[in-house]
Amino acid sequence: MVSRADRSPFAEWLWTVDRFLVAGFIVLMIGGIVLSFAASPAVAERLNIDSYHFIKRQAFFLVPALGLMLAISALSPRYVRRAALALFVVSMLLMVATLFVGMEAKGARRWINMAGFSIQPSEFLKPALIVLAAFLMAEGGRRPEVPGTLLSTLLFVMSAALLVAQPDFGQTMLLALVFAALIFLNGLSWLAIVPLGVLGLGGLVSAYMMLPHVQSRVDRFLDPGAGDTYNIDRAIEAFVSGSWFGRGPGEGTIKRILPESHTDFIFAVAAEEFGIIVCLLLLLVFAFVVLRGLRHAAQDSDPFGRLATAGLMVLFGIQAAINMAVNLNLMPAKGMTLPFISYGGSSLLAMAISMGFVLALTRRRPQASRSDSVVVSRLSPAHLS
Amino acid sequence: MAVTDQPVSFLQRRTVGERHVPRGPSTHAVRARVHMAMAVFALVYMAIGGRLIMLGMSEESKSASYISAQDSVAASRPDLLDRNGQILATDIKTASLFAEPRKILDVDEALEGIASVLPELGTDAVRRRLASNAGFIWLKRELTPRQRQQIHDLGIPGIGFLEENSRFYPGGPTAGHIVGSVNVDNQGISGMELAVDRAWLGDLRELGFASDRTMEPVQLSVDLRVQHVVRDELVKALERYRAIAGIGVVLDVETGEVVAMSSLPDFDPNDRAQALEKDRMNRASGGVYEMGSVFKGFTVAMALDSGKVTMNDSFDATRPMRVGGRTISDFYGKGRILSVAETFIYSSNIGTAKMMLSAGIDRQKEFLERLGLTSRLQTDLPEVATPLLPPRWNELAAITISFGHGISVTPLQTAVATAALMNGGRLIPPTFLPRSREEADKLAKQVVSPQTSEMMRYLFRLNVLSGSGRRAEVPGYMVGGKTGTAEKIENGRYVSNKRRNSFLSAFPMDKPRYVVLVVLDEPKPEREGVSATAGVNTAPVTSAIIRRVAPMLGVLPKFGDKTETVSISY
User: Which sign does the torsion angle of CA A22, A23, A25, A26 carry?
Assistant: First the structure.
């Protein structure tokens, strides 16, 4: 163990970082590899590629992801802002490029080929935008001359426009939710929240009215008899057949049936093979990470740190909750990856960066005390009289 | 606070905290917002956890057809035992193969795998069923353990096994017609299996209580040892006399219990397809036949019981009778006047007809009704045929009926009616379930007087001692019986070279315990120059049966004065 007297950068990091959060993330990453063994060989076999293709890639990405997360966690808040800005600029450029040179799959351009890897820039855009928006809002709160909320809204609209152009409504929705959460957390008055909430609901309703595939998904959720609920039926069957202790590793069948079993439906695969108790433990880890992260945010007296941490944790928490809720048929089907668990290099790296930001921002720092300070001022005796 | 807003010097203007939270929402309010977010997340994650627990507690819901299939296959049946506790039918566990086509991932792979073990399933029809969207289909019922293991080892997703109860009959065909058989869902379809279903098991199953519970075994009246002997002797007889069918019945005259009943060719209940072959029907209770001369016993009993004829009367059998354009003649024509006893032991058609006429046609009809020979036999076994009666019971019909033609009854019915003539005149409905003597006494119906019964015993015994049934004698067991050689009808005419021979007997005649009926269909002469009448085939078969079964049934042989029955005179 490193001595507390040690003042080396590593020692400093070790004593200031939240080791419980680090442990939680590492548990999730390892869980991702384990579940990848369960879910992805079946998918790989269906695609006629090496059975262990996805596992190898997941493990391959794990090392840089872990390194990136720990490295970023050593940054100071100032460098977190700078890194976020750089990431934002790069991912915006890549997203624009994606629209022109991206790979088209299932009618959408979301991926771009870079140095032999296909990258989904929108994954990296999300944490970058959140950190920048948090910074702008915090800055706006501090300096009245800075129109923080306006600028951050501008950034959000730009990002959302690029996402809609791909199109990727799922990510747009997610980003909108997180951005709304940021505004809410920034202390927007309730008088403004109500009309904005109505506006948001109106947006959802219009999306339901205007977009046929959104409509069909919602319809199928509300009335299972109305259409094809094949995927979700199989997923529920997987939970039931797995029961508490699972059917055993390799004994699952849903992974062979569902096309997205290694990403969107990995939770159901986990339930079938390892049991609902393991799923509950996984859920517990997610809940622990999210609530601990948010508690850090609540205690942070620095508005930027507070907003950025909260925003990133909300992103993480919402994404996990949506994935699990869809698997459990608690909400309409929406492809959403389970952070750290689902297969996907981009999402893994982006998540590692996000959580690296969180770790960096939640490191223990000397903070301004809440108690009223005694001011020792040098006043002229004349004034005292 | 000793701070003023007056800008005295730049040092004085600095106030703590101004740089951090100068305005806007207070730290406290923002912190509350984060706490609200935490609460929302906690609720959402709890909802997800609750849903997980709910799913964990829910039972795996199988498709409706799966459930009904499981219900029907799991249904168990009680063991059937013979009267000594030997197992006639029992449940064994087998596995049946099913598929859940919706869960099959690769139909070709699945079909190929299954066909490698069960080649008969490798057809296009099976492929279509596997490719369908059905929730549950049977592929093959009742696999052998080896097949089950082989298919299990293939590890094909979407197919599985259901444990099911499969009926096994250790005795094979021995008591096949009595025990009956079940269908693939373990439901009784014939014999006592069906009888048990009808009596109570079917209702139990309907209510869903029959699945997989152990039930009290059901004991039958049949004695497996006796049953085996009867069947064994019939098999040998069929071979020796090249007969096409054979029937054997052993009936307890005191209780009405059927101790053995065999009908050849029979079937092995373990092989369900066999039971459908028409040839293998249960002739003993499910077929009706003109029983021929064995019916003369009923006519004589009727005549004696009516009081119109006594043992001392005699009938002129010198010339054939002509009735309604038909000639009635005797097979063993003695050409003289015959006493009642002679009429019986020489099996005189003319004498029997005249005896009947002395008593009256109406009385004959009433008497046969009383013996239950004109209506469907009431018993446990489902396979019971209804007698065929003449369209008009006129004089000609009555005359032919008196010697066993023109009326078709079941052999079992004949044995039951004969038991009444032997046991002191009490008609006891037959049963295939154990019955005590007291229970039988309650059911018994006096149909002839004890005196008539005694005279009939004398006549039966006499026929074996000095009549056509000589070959039926078993030393010590005092067998009494009546032969019957009925010409079969083909295309509406009696043909003389095709016979249905029978021997209706009881033993021991001093106090009869059992009635034994043996029928052979179309027996051929054993060798050239020998006749093929009942006396030379069914009588020795009866003798062989009694010789073997009497010790088993606890009938003690009596050796000594051979004149005991003949000395009685009336």
Answer: positive
